[in-house]
Design brief:
The complex is a heterodimer of chains A (about 450) and B (about 525). Chain A has six helices and 19 strands. Chain A is α+β, with helices and mostly antiparallel strands. In chain A, the strands form three sheets. Chain A has a 15-stranded mixed sheet that branches. Helix content of chain B is about 15%, strand content about 45%. Classes of the chains: A alpha+beta (about 450), B mainly beta (about 525).
C-alpha cells in the first residue's frame, strides 16, 4: 500500500470515528435515561430510594393515637393533636394505615392536554378590579376566560400562584355524578345529623376526556362549572334542589338557585357571603372540595415543600366511623409523598378566615389538607380530603376525592363525608343545569 | 294514621335518604306527624265564659307524601305525586265551653277535614315529562310570587286561615289545592323562556276565613249579633259558592312566561279568576242581613236566592329577582300586579235612606224597609287596582356575633307592600283604613342560626300603616334526623280604636309545635 492510500484510509477512519462519537453522544442519553415525565413524580430517584427504605418499616402499620408521635413530622400538627385525643372526637381510637407510595397519573386526555397547552401557559399582563378586590397584573391565567386552556398549566410550578392554578385545573372526568353521604356530628352531645345529596357536576371549559374537548359551545356566559344537587336527607329538606354556576370571569359572582319544596319556588340565593358556613356544617361556601371559589380571591405565598403522609389512592370503603358520634374518620390510607405548603389570604376585608394553609400534592394537585385560621388568629378548622382513584366509563383513570372531613377544632365538631356511587365521563345535557330543571325535579 | 303505622311496619328498603323506598326505589314514601298548640295570653271578658282554658288550638296533623315513578324511558317519564294531610283539632272537644260555643256542624267541619276528596288530599297529580314539555294533571299548589307574608301576584290557590296565619305558617302550608291542568314548555328562545299555563275546569274554593268561636275567629256563635254575623256570612257563602265541576262557567285559567335578561330572572303572568270571596247583591244581601237581625243572630242559611255573587276578575302581573353584586350585595325580589276590574261593594257612607223591598222569612213577609244604616250595601263597582311588593334579602355579617357563632351571618329580609285603588270612591267597602285608596305594609324578618343550625331564632315584624301589626318570635330546635321543636310568640298591636275590634287584635299567644319527620 503506498503512502497516499494509507493517509486516505486513516482520514476516512478518523471521519468515521468522529461521526460515531457524535452519534453516541446524541443517542446515549436517549437509551441510557428515562424520558422526562409530563407531570414529574414528587420524588427523585435518590429520594425514592430513601422513601422505600422508610416504607419497609412502616407500610402496613396501623398508626393510632399511641403511635402517632412517631410519624408526627409527616402530618399537620392539627391532625396529630386530634389523633392524640380521640375521645374528644367521639372515638375510642383514631387510626390510619400507611400504604406504599405510588405515582399518581391522571387520564391520558388530561396528560395530552397538559403537554399541549402548558408550554403556552402565561398570565395576563393586565390586572382588573372586581367587587371583592383586585386581580393584579400577572395573576390571571391567559386563555382561561375564553376556555382556551386545559390540563395542568404549570406542571413544574415555580410559584404558589402557579401551584394554585394547577389545583383549579383538574376536571375529574369532565362530567361526574356522585352522592354525598355526610354526617354533622357533635361528639360532646352525641348528636348526629345525616345528609344525603346526589350531585351532578359538569365542566364547561378545560375539558380533556369527554367530548366536546376543551370547551362546550356555545358558552356565552363563560361558565366554568355547574352543579345540580338534590337533597334527600334530612327529611325536612327532602326534595330541595340546588343549581350552582361558577364562571370563568372573576368579575362575576357565582349564581346559585334553589328549589325549595316547602315554598314551591325557585329562589335566587345570595352568594356574597362566601365566608358563611353552609347549613350547620364546618365549611363555608368557598371550602367545597378544599377550595372552589375564584382562585384570584386570595394572595398566595409559598412556604415550603415537605415529605408528608397523605391519602392519594384511598379506598373509600376503608374509611370508617367506628363510633356513632365520631367526628373524624379512621381508616385513611396515607402514603408518603411531597406536599407543597402554601399560605392563602383572602383579599376581601373581613373575610371569615384570617389565613389558610393549603397542602398541595405535586402529582395530583389535589389538596389533602387545609387548616383555616379565624379572625383572631387562632386555628379554627381543619380539612382533610381523602384522594383516591377511580375509572371513568371510558376506562380513563380519574383522580378523585372519595371522602372529606371538615372539623371545627375550637368547638369540637365535625362533618365526615364520603361519596357514594361516583361515576365519571358520562354524557350530560346542558339543559340539566337550568332553572326549569330545578322546577321539574321538585313538586 | 293507621296507614302510616302499616307502612312503618313494613321492612322497606335500606334508607339512604329520608324517604322509604319500595319497588326498587320507584315508590318513595315520607311524611311527618305534628302537634300544634296555641295558648292565648289573654281572653277578653266577653269571650271568657266560652273558654275553660287559654288553649286556643290543639291541632294534630299527619302528613303523608308519596312519589311514584310510573314510567321512565330516556326523556319520557310519568310520575305520580300525592300529599295527604289529615288533621284533628282537639281543643273543641277537650274544652267543653268551646265545644258548646260552636254548633255541631261547624264543629265537625272545623275539627277534621271536611270531605275526604277535598281537604285531606291536598295534592295529587300526574307529572308527565317529555323532552321540553311537562304536563301536570291533578290537584296542585301553584306558587307564582316571590315575597312572603302577603301575596301580590301569588293568587292562584286560596288559603285556609282557620288554624294559623302567615306570620307563623308559610303560605304553602295554608294553600288549598285545586284540580287543574298545568303545562310547561321550555322553549329554545333566547333568555331560556319557559311558558306555563294553568286551567282549572271548575274547582272553585272559597278563601277559608277564621271561624267565629275558634282561636282566630271573633267571639262566639250566639254571642252579640255583630260577632255572629260573620258565621252567617261564611255559611251562606258556602251555600252559594260555585259548585265544583258542575258548571263550565266556573273555569279559571292563567298563563305565565318566565325568562332571564342578564342577571334578572323575570316572569309575566295573566290570570282570569273567580274571586275567592263574593260580593253582596245590593238588595238581596241587605235582606239577608235584616233577616239575620230579625232572627236574633241565629240565622245561618240563605233566605233569599243568591245574596252573594261570585265575580270574575282579571289580573296581569310580573315577578323578578336578581342578585345585586355591586351595591346591595343581596337578592332583590319583586312582584307587580294590575287587577283589572276588581270588584268592591259600596256602602251607604252618607247615611241616605235606602229602600229594602219586602221578602219572605220564616213563613212571613218581612218589610219593606226604609233604612239609613251606613253598613247597608248600595252596589257593586269595578275598580282597577295597582299593587307591588319588594323584598330585600341579605345575609349580614355582624363581626361580634360571628365571633361566637362560628362565623355565621344572619338572614335579613325587608319587604314593602303597597297597593292603590284607582279612581277610588269613599263608598267602597274595603278592609283598609276608612276612605284610604292606598294601603302600605312593611315587614322585617331576622333569622339567626346557632349551634350548627340545630337552633334557629326568627323574628318577624309586620306593620300596616293603618296602625296595626304584629311581632312574632320563633325558636326552632332540630338536633337530629327526625324531631323538630318550635316555640313562639305572636303579639298584635293597634294604634287605632276601630282596628281593635276585628278578630286579631286580642289574639296574643304563645305557640308550640312538635314534629316528627320520617
Amino acid at each position: 500500500m503506498n503512502f497516499m492510500v494509507k493517509i486516505k484510509i486513516k482520514g476516512h477512519s478518523i471521519l468515521y470515528l468522529t461521526l460515531w462519537v457524535l452519534f453516541l453522544s446524541l443517542t446515549v442519553p436517549v437509551f441510557g435515561q428515562e424520558p422526562e415525565e409530563i407531570i414529574p413524580p414528587c420524588f427523585t430517584e435518590s429520594e425514592l430510594a430513601k422513601v422505600k427504605e422508610w416504607e419497609k418499616t412502616w407500610v402496613g402499620k396501623k398508626v393510632n393515637s399511641a403511635m402517632v408521635d412517631q410519624v408526627k413530622d409527616f402530618l399537620p400538627d392539627t391532625l396529630v393533636k386530634m389523633m392524640k385525643e380521640p375521645k374528644k372526637w367521639g372515638a375510642k381510637d383514631l387510626w390510619f394505615e400507611v400504604v406504599p407510595y405510588r405515582y399518581s397519573e391522571p387520564s391520558k386526555g388530561f396528560l395530552e392536554a397538559t403537554k399541549k397547552y402548558s408550554p403556552l401557559s402565561k398570565f395576563e399582563p393586565e390586572g382588573f378590579k372586581t367587587s371583592w378586590g383586585e386581580v393584579a397584573p400577572n395573576e390571571f391565567l391567559a386563555g382561561y376566560l375564553e376556555g382556551e386552556i386545559a390540563g395542568f398549566p404549570f406542571p413544574k410550578p415555580k410559584t404558589a400562584l402557579e401551584m394554585v392554578w394547577n389545583y383549579d385545573s383538574l376536571t375529574q372526568g369532565d362530567n361526574r355524578t356522585l352522592a354525598v353521604s355526610g354526617t354533622n356530628v357533635n361528639p360532646r352531645t352525641g348528636s348526629v345529623r345525616n345528609a344525603y345529596q346526589p350531585q351532578t357536576y359538569m365542566y364547561w371549559t378545560g375539558r380533556t376526556d369527554v367530548p366536546p374537548l376543551l370547551k362546550i359551545e356555545p358558552n356565552k356566559k363563560r361558565i366554568r362549572q355547574t352543579l345540580f344537587m338534590v337533597i334527600l336527607k334530612p327529611a325536612d329538606n327532602y326534595g330541595n334542589c340546588f343549581l350552582d354556576i361558577w364562571y370563568c370571569d372573576p368579575r362575576k359572582e357565582n349564581d346559585s338557585y334553589s328549589w325549595m319544596a316547602a315554598y314551591r319556588r325557585i329562589r335566587k340565593l345570595s352568594t356574597s357571603q362566601r365566608g358563611d358556613s353552609i347549613d350547620g356544617n364546618d365549611q363555608n361556601f368557598s371550602d367545597g372540595w378544599g377550595y372552589t371559589d375564584q382562585k384570584n380571591r386570595n394572595t398566595y405565598k409559598f412556604l415550603e415543600t415537605r415529605d408528608m403522609l397523605a391519602c392519594r389512592h384511598q379506598d373509600p370503603t376503608a374509611l370508617v366511623s367506628e363510633e356513632k358520634a365520631q367526628a373524624f374518620f379512621s381508616g385513611q390510607q396515607r402514603e408518603r409523598c411531597k406536599l407543597h405548603i402554601v399560605e392563602a389570604v383572602n383579599k376581601e376585608k373581613g373575610y371569615v378566615y384570617s389565613k389558610e394553609i393549603w397542602y398541595l400534592d405535586g402529582e395530583t394537585w389535589q389538596m389533602p389538607y387545609k387548616v383555616c385560621w379565624d379572625r383572631q388568629g387562632r386555628p379554627w378548622r381543619f380539612f382533610e380530603a381523602n384522594v383516591g382513584h377511580s375509572k371513568s366509563i371510558q376506562g380513563n383513570p380519574v383522580i378523585f376525592v372519595v371522602g372529606y372531613t371538615f372539623v371545627d377544632i375550637q368547638r369540637i365538631h365535625g362533618c365526615p363525608n364520603c361519596f357514594k356511587d361516583p361515576q365519571f365521563g358520562m354524557e350530560l345535557k346542558t339543559d340539566m343545569f337550568t332553572t326549569q330543571s330545578l322546577q321539574r325535579s321538585g313538586y | 294514621m293507621l296507614l302510616t303505622l302499616f307502612i312503618f311496619s313494613l321492612s322497606g328498603e335500606k334508607k339512604s335518604n329520608a324517604a322509604i323506598g319500595y319497588l326498587d326505589g320507584r315508590l318513595l314514601l315520607k311524611g311527618n306527624f305534628e302537634t300544634f298548640w296555641i295558648v292565648r295570653t289573654y281572653i277578653p271578658g266577653k269571650e271568657r265564659e266560652w273558654h275553660n282554658s287559654n288553649v286556643g288550638l290543639l291541632q294534630n296533623t299527619a302528613r303523608f307524601e308519596t312519589f311514584y315513578t310510573m314510567l321512565q324511558k330516556e326523556d319520557f317519564s310519568i310520575n305520580l305525586q300525592s300529599i295527604i294531610r289529615y288533621y284533628y283539632e282537639a281543643i273543641t272537644d277537650l274544652d267543653r265551653e268551646m265545644h258548646n260555643a260552636l254548633p255541631a256542624g261547624i264543629r265537625r267541619e272545623y275539627k277534621t277535614p271536611s270531605y275526604f276528596h277535598d281537604d285531606p288530599l291536598n295534592e295529587f297529580y300526574f307529572d308527565i315529562i317529555k323532552g321540553s314539555w311537562n304536563v301536570r294533571v291533578g290537584k296542585q299548589l301553584v306558587s307564582w310570587g316571590e315575597t312572603a307574608l302577603r301575596r301580590t301576584t301569588d293568587l292562584v290557590n286560596p288559603t285556609d286561615q282557620r288554624y294559623s296565619t302567615s306570620g307563623i305558617t308559610p303560605f304553602e302550608d295554608l294553600k288549598i289545592g285545586l284540580w287543574m291542568l298545568r303545562t310547561y314548555y321550555q322553549s329554545p328562545l333566547p333568555g331560556n323562556l319557559l311558558f306555563e299555563t294553568i286551567f282549572v275546569p271548575g274547582d272553585f274554593q272559597l278563601l277559608r276565613l277564621s271561624v267565629p268561636g275558634t282561636n282566630w275567629g271573633k267571639g262566639k256563635i250566639g254571642s252579640p249579633i255583630p260577632d255572629n254575623r260573620m258565621h252567617m256570612m261564611q255559611s251562606t257563602w258556602k251555600e252559594e259558592a260555585p259548585r265544583r265541576l258542575r258548571s263550565i262557567s266556573n273555569y279559571q285559567w292563567g298563563m305565565r312566561v318566565r325568562g332571564q335578561i342578564g342577571v334578572v330572572d323575570w316572569s309575566l303572568q295573566y290570570l282570569d279568576w273567580i274571586d275567592w270571596l263574593p260580593m253582596g247583591h245590593p238588595i238581596r244581601a241587605n235582606q239577608q242581613v235584616i233577616a239575620f237581625m230579625t232572627s236574633g243572630g241565629t240565622l245561618d242559611h240563605s233566605i233569599v236566592h243568591d245574596p252573594w255573587l261570585y265575580k270574575r276578575s282579571k289580573h296581569v302581573g310580573a315577578n323578578f329577582q336578581w342578585f345585586d353584586e355591586k351595591f346591595f350585595r343581596g337578592v332583590i325580589r319583586g312582584e307587580v300586579a294590575y287587577h283589572i276590574g276588581q270588584h268592591f261593594n259600596t256602602t251607604n257612607v252618607e247615611g241616605k235612606m235606602l229602600h229594602i223591598p219586602a221578602f219572605k222569612f220564616n213563613g212571613t213577609v218581612q218589610g219593606p224597609y226604609d233604612l239609613d244604616q251606613k253598613t247597608l250595601l248600595t252596589g257593586i263597582k269595578e275598580k282597577d287596582v295597582f299593587a307591588y311588593a319588594l323584598a330585600f334579602d341579605r345575609r349580614v355579617a355582624w363581626p361580634w356575633l360571628m365571633q361566637y357563632n362560628k362565623g355565621r351571618t344572619f338572614a335579613c329580609n325587608v319587604q314593602i307592600f303597597q297597593d292603590w285603588i284607582l279612581k277610588h270612591e269613599r263608598a267602597l267597602d274595603t278592609q283598609r283604613g276608612k276612605g284610604d285608596r292606598n294601603s302600605t305594609a312593611l315587614s322585617l324578618m331576622l333569622q339567626f342560626d346557632w349551634l350548627d343550625m340545630t337552633v334557629m331564632t326568627t323574628y318577624t315584624g309586620y306593620y300596616d300603616t293603618t296602625g296595626t301589626g304584629y311581632n312574632c318570635l320563633d325558636l326552632f330546635y332540630g338536633a337530629d334526623d327526625h324531631w323538630r321543636f318550635s316555640v313562639g310568640s305572636m303579639f298584635f298591636y293597634s294604634f287605632v280604636s276601630w282596628k281593635k275590634e276585628p278578630a286579631q287584635f286580642d289574639k296574643d299567644c304563645f305557640y308550640f309545635k312538635v314534629k316528627y319527620e320520617w
